[in-house]
Protein backbone atom coordinates (compact mmCIF):
# COMPACT_ATOMS: atom_id res chain seq x y z
CA UNK A 1 0.00 0.00 0.00
CA UNK A 2 1.40 3.40 -0.97
CA UNK A 3 1.74 6.03 1.74
CA UNK A 4 -0.95 8.69 1.67
CA UNK A 5 0.52 12.13 1.15
CA UNK A 6 -1.14 15.54 0.77
CA UNK A 7 -0.53 15.50 -2.98
CA UNK A 8 -1.96 12.02 -3.43
CA UNK A 9 -5.06 12.94 -1.42
CA UNK A 10 -5.84 16.18 -3.23
CA UNK A 11 -4.69 15.39 -6.77
CA UNK A 12 -7.74 14.38 -8.77
CA UNK A 13 -6.36 13.41 -12.17
CA UNK A 14 -4.72 10.05 -12.81
CA UNK A 15 -3.91 10.89 -16.43
CA UNK A 16 -0.80 12.77 -17.34
CA UNK A 17 1.76 13.07 -20.09
CA UNK A 18 4.21 10.29 -20.75
CA UNK A 19 7.09 10.11 -23.17
CA UNK A 20 4.99 8.44 -25.92
CA UNK A 21 1.76 10.37 -25.94
CA UNK A 22 2.64 13.83 -24.65
CA UNK A 23 3.09 16.41 -27.33
CA UNK A 24 3.28 20.21 -27.31
CA UNK A 25 -0.40 20.33 -28.20
CA UNK A 26 -1.44 18.17 -25.22
CA UNK A 27 0.68 19.21 -22.23
CA UNK A 28 -0.80 17.30 -19.31
CA UNK A 29 -3.97 15.88 -20.76
CA UNK A 30 -6.67 15.44 -18.10
CA UNK A 31 -8.96 13.06 -19.99
CA UNK A 32 -8.32 9.62 -21.48
CA UNK A 33 -6.92 9.53 -24.99
CA UNK A 34 -9.35 8.83 -27.87
CA UNK A 35 -9.77 5.23 -29.07
CA UNK A 36 -6.88 4.07 -31.20
CA UNK A 37 -4.44 6.60 -29.77
CA UNK A 38 -1.40 5.33 -27.89
CA UNK A 39 -2.27 4.71 -24.26
CA UNK A 40 -0.33 6.14 -21.36
CA UNK A 41 1.19 3.37 -19.28
CA UNK A 42 -0.36 3.18 -15.81
CA UNK A 43 1.50 5.17 -13.22
CA UNK A 44 2.63 3.32 -10.16
CA UNK A 45 0.59 4.42 -7.14
CA UNK A 46 -1.79 6.63 -9.11
CA UNK A 47 -3.87 8.77 -6.76
CA UNK A 48 -7.56 7.94 -6.76
CA UNK A 49 -10.16 10.31 -8.10
CA UNK A 50 -11.96 11.89 -5.16
CA UNK A 51 -15.58 12.85 -4.91
CA UNK A 52 -16.19 16.59 -5.39
CA UNK A 53 -18.61 16.51 -2.46
CA UNK A 54 -15.75 16.62 0.04
CA UNK A 55 -15.04 20.28 -0.76
CA UNK A 56 -18.39 21.68 0.42
CA UNK A 57 -18.34 19.22 3.33
CA UNK A 58 -14.91 20.47 4.38
CA UNK A 59 -16.04 24.08 3.96
CA UNK A 60 -19.17 23.61 6.08
CA UNK A 61 -17.17 21.73 8.70
CA UNK A 62 -14.58 24.49 8.76
CA UNK A 63 -17.24 27.19 9.07
CA UNK A 64 -18.88 25.32 11.94
CA UNK A 65 -15.60 24.74 13.78
CA UNK A 66 -14.47 28.31 13.22
CA UNK A 67 -17.78 29.78 14.40
CA UNK A 68 -17.93 27.61 17.52
CA UNK A 69 -14.36 28.32 18.60
CA UNK A 70 -14.64 32.05 17.84
CA UNK A 71 -17.84 32.33 19.87
CA UNK A 72 -16.20 30.40 22.69
CA UNK A 73 -13.33 32.87 22.71
CA UNK A 74 -15.70 35.85 22.57
CA UNK A 75 -17.86 34.69 25.47
CA UNK A 76 -15.05 33.35 27.67
CA UNK A 77 -13.49 35.39 30.44
CA UNK A 78 -11.12 38.01 29.18
CA UNK A 79 -7.58 36.77 28.50
CA UNK A 80 -8.45 33.21 29.52
CA UNK A 81 -7.06 31.60 26.35
CA UNK A 82 -3.97 33.75 25.87
CA UNK A 83 -1.87 31.23 27.79
CA UNK A 84 -2.33 28.78 24.88
CA UNK A 85 0.22 30.61 22.71
CA UNK A 86 3.25 28.74 24.04
CA UNK A 87 1.55 25.35 23.87
CA UNK A 88 0.32 25.97 20.33
CA UNK A 89 3.74 27.02 19.08
CA UNK A 90 5.28 23.97 20.78
CA UNK A 91 2.69 21.84 18.99
CA UNK A 92 3.62 23.42 15.66
CA UNK A 93 7.28 22.65 16.35
CA UNK A 94 6.35 19.04 17.15
CA UNK A 95 4.41 18.86 13.88
CA UNK A 96 7.39 20.22 11.95
CA UNK A 97 9.73 17.65 13.48
CA UNK A 98 7.32 14.77 12.92
CA UNK A 99 6.82 15.86 9.28
CA UNK A 100 10.57 15.90 8.80
CA UNK A 101 10.92 12.43 10.30
CA UNK A 102 7.99 11.20 8.23
CA UNK A 103 9.56 12.48 5.02
CA UNK A 104 12.28 9.85 5.55
CA UNK A 105 10.09 7.09 7.04
CA UNK A 106 6.94 7.40 4.90
CA UNK A 107 4.69 6.26 7.73
CA UNK A 108 0.95 6.50 7.07
CA UNK A 109 0.26 6.40 10.80
CA UNK A 110 2.56 9.38 11.48
CA UNK A 111 1.02 11.32 8.60
CA UNK A 112 -2.49 10.69 9.97
CA UNK A 113 -1.46 11.63 13.51
CA UNK A 114 0.09 14.82 12.14
CA UNK A 115 -3.19 15.69 10.37
CA UNK A 116 -5.32 15.29 13.48
CA UNK A 117 -2.77 17.09 15.67
CA UNK A 118 -2.72 19.91 13.12
CA UNK A 119 -6.49 20.19 13.22
CA UNK A 120 -6.46 20.44 17.02
CA UNK A 121 -3.68 23.03 16.97
CA UNK A 122 -5.49 25.15 14.38
CA UNK A 123 -8.66 25.07 16.50
CA UNK A 124 -6.55 26.29 19.40
CA UNK A 125 -5.19 29.08 17.24
CA UNK A 126 -8.74 30.27 16.54
CA UNK A 127 -9.29 30.60 20.30
CA UNK A 128 -5.92 32.24 20.85
CA UNK A 129 -6.05 34.64 17.91
CA UNK A 130 -9.62 35.73 18.64
CA UNK A 131 -8.78 36.63 22.23
CA UNK A 132 -5.49 38.23 21.17
CA UNK A 133 -7.36 40.41 18.67
CA UNK A 134 -9.83 41.42 21.38
CA UNK A 135 -6.97 42.37 23.72
CA UNK A 136 -5.18 44.31 20.99
CA UNK A 137 -8.38 46.19 20.15
CA UNK A 138 -8.93 47.02 23.84
CA UNK A 139 -5.40 48.40 24.09
CA UNK A 140 -5.86 50.65 21.04
CA UNK A 141 -4.55 48.52 18.14
CA UNK A 142 -7.24 49.04 15.48
CA UNK A 143 -5.39 47.34 12.62
CA UNK A 144 -8.42 45.35 11.52
CA UNK A 145 -6.86 44.26 8.22
CA UNK A 146 -4.11 42.23 9.89
CA UNK A 147 -6.59 40.93 12.45
CA UNK A 148 -8.75 39.65 9.58
CA UNK A 149 -5.70 38.13 7.91
CA UNK A 150 -4.87 36.23 11.12
CA UNK A 151 -8.35 34.78 11.34
CA UNK A 152 -8.49 34.07 7.60
CA UNK A 153 -5.25 32.07 7.81
CA UNK A 154 -6.72 30.10 10.71
CA UNK A 155 -9.80 29.38 8.57
CA UNK A 156 -7.70 28.29 5.57
CA UNK A 157 -5.53 26.01 7.70
CA UNK A 158 -8.55 24.31 9.26
CA UNK A 159 -10.10 23.89 5.79
CA UNK A 160 -6.89 22.35 4.46
CA UNK A 161 -6.61 19.91 7.36
CA UNK A 162 -10.27 18.89 7.10
CA UNK A 163 -9.99 18.45 3.33
CA UNK A 164 -7.06 16.07 3.71
CA UNK A 165 -8.77 14.13 6.53
CA UNK A 166 -11.97 13.74 4.50
CA UNK A 167 -9.97 12.71 1.43
CA UNK A 168 -8.10 10.08 3.41
CA UNK A 169 -11.33 8.76 4.89
CA UNK A 170 -12.88 8.49 1.44
CA UNK A 171 -9.81 6.66 0.12
CA UNK A 172 -10.03 4.14 2.95
CA UNK A 173 -13.73 3.54 2.21
CA UNK A 174 -12.95 2.96 -1.49
CA UNK A 175 -10.11 0.55 -0.63
CA UNK A 176 -12.43 -1.56 1.55
CA UNK A 177 -14.92 -2.04 -1.31
UniProtKB/TrEMBL annotation:
Q: Where in the cell is it found?
A: Membrane
* Listed Pfam families: Bax1-I (PF01027)
Q: How does it sit in the membrane?
A: Multi-pass membrane protein
Listed under GO biological process in this entry are: cellular response to unfolded protein; negative regulation of apoptotic signaling pathway; negative regulation of RNA splicing
Which GO terms label this protein's molecular function in UniProt? Answer: enzyme binding
- Signal sequence region: none
The principal localisation class reads: membrane
Q: Which UniProt keywords apply?
A: Membrane, Transmembrane, Transmembrane helix
> What is the similarity comment for this entry?
Belongs to the BI1 family.
Q: What is this protein called?
A: Transmembrane BAX inhibitor motif containing 6
Q: Per the UniProt entry, what species is this protein from, by scientific name?
A: Amazona collaria (yellow-billed parrot)
What lineage does UniProt assign to this protein's organism? Eukaryota, Metazoa, Chordata, Craniata, Vertebrata
